[in-house]
Amino acid sequence: MIKRLLISLLFICFVSSIIYSQVNRETRAVWLTTNFRLDWPPPVYNADTQKKALIKILDDLKDKKFNTIYFQVRFNGTVLYKSDIEPYSYYLTGEVGDTPEYDPLEFVLKQAHLRGMEVHAWLNMINTFAGTEQKILANKSHLYKTHPDWLVQWTEDNKKSYWIDPGIPEAREYLCQLVTEVAEKYDVDGLHFDFLRYPGRTFNDQLSYAEYGNEGNKDDWRRNNLTSLVESIYNSVKAIKPLIKIGVAPIGIYKNRPGATGWEGFSEVHQDSRTWLKRGIIDYVVPQIYWDFKNNPRFDVLAKDWQDNSYNRTVILGIGAYQKSVYPEMDKMIAYSREINAGGVAFFRYENIKNYNSKLFDEYSFPNLMPWIKINLPEPPNNLHFELSGSFSSTIKLFWEQLNNELNNVKYYSIYWLNNKSSEFNSTSLLDIISSNKQSISLPLHRPRKIKNYFAVKSLNNLWNESENSSNICEVIIPQLKDFSESVKGDDKPTLLSDNNNAILLVNLQSNEKIEIIGETEADSKTLITQIVPRGTNYISLSNTNKFKRLKVNYLVQNKNFTLNLN
């Protein structure tokens, strides 16, 4: 009995270490919703205001350590990119079809790539209009005007919407051309399809069924129509750009299971997404598992069902962050995705995770690999070197060289900060990810540093495969801090070096410590930093210290407190 208990405890500890340790590969995605302006753009028609709002979102997602954005570019039969097929959304200028001052898809691609994040163009497919914005239907370029014979009205909860009839071959070809246009014109990392389904079983497609159904089983015919559309898109896009990832966000329940019953994708909306996975005509799925662990349908039951039936394609677990019962469990859902070896998680939607910072996303992680998409490994950069600048020479600028980025398949650079020359390259030592458009980076000393700092850079291709080797490892020693540390060596009391506006705090630690630094005035105080600091000699850089009279430094583990006066 005791032996069995020990084995169980060891297993639990082993699983916990896997779940809560940092991971090198994990898609961390968010749906950035533009329909009805839910996440973006703001309800103004000024291009600069719209751009700034989008930059703010991207900066926030970068800070939260996300790596993938599903950016909604088609909704209600209008688009957010330059199309020869469908009109621009009126959200940009106030008028449907008017050309804006900038191309939103081109803009978000450039800005996200600069921040080391990939973008999948998210298109609402079969659903072509919902809501009350009648000016959209009135536009001469909308499908409601150009191909009313392809559209079927659907009424649910006394609300009308219009859906393309996927039983019409010309309508399917239209959708394929629409998607292929995006692939041809833009440097998208992926194409992401929503509403690739029928609205329900009572969809009025009698005419198309009579003409094209060949008197077969109607449910099977409908499923085949969607499968035919998916296959056509996949083959067309891959023929143009084979590296683009093709993904679908299906209904969360494929078929009912014990503990997970409800609205079925397979039978209710004729969405046979498992066949798409099995036949390899999509690269990934993001099932919309928008429920919690406790109630039917249960998140864990559905997540495991999808992962067990992935057919070696990628499953990203869709999380309903807008649900009150789901929000408190989101860290648990991330952990569960790791436990079952899913490809990662995606949150619906940005507004609902704006104030969410997962403790499991402490370090950067690359998106999940898709090994069936083939590309050569990139060549590593070379001649990594540095310059020092700023107060106390506390800003390190790294430079490197890379020949023929395009020929070498270089899309990003991964910057590593190593403990020593033989340290492992992993998520813990991954400092940043930046676009290959840049071949330098400035690193202010905003985190604890050793006297000797070691940096290296690797190249990444479109699919997040790293170069086998890194650049040369660059050793950086900051002379002033080295001299400073030698003058106070062996003293466990923190020591301060400051000028009018900046400060460097030196701490010598015999063991890892959690340090809290508080800036104090005569009337007020503010917590500046609370973080784990490793054993040894470390530097913590602080800016704008001229606001304070003194710093209070608390060693929370040792329960020691120090007060340091500022100049």
Short description:
This protein has 567 residues and is α/β, with parallel strands linked by helices.
Question: Describe it for me?
Answer:
It is a single chain. Helix 2 links the parallel strand 1 and strand 2. The chain is built from 14 helices and 27 strands. The model is unreliable at 1-21 (pLDDT under 50). The chain is α/β, with parallel strands linked by helices. Helix content is 26%, strand content 28%. The protein is elongated and about 90 Å long. The strands form six sheets. An eight-stranded parallel β-barrel has the order 1-2-4-8-9-10-12-13, surrounded by four helices. Helix 2 (47-63) runs parallel beside helix 3.
What gap, in angstroms, lies between the N and C termini?
Answer: 65 Å
Radius of gyration: 27 Å
Q: Choose one word for the global shape.
A: elongated
- The fraction of residues in strands falls at 25-35%
- What is the mean pLDDT? 91
Helix content: 25-40%
Strand order of the largest sheet: 1-2-4-8-9-10-12-13
Largest sheet: 8 strands, parallel, barrel
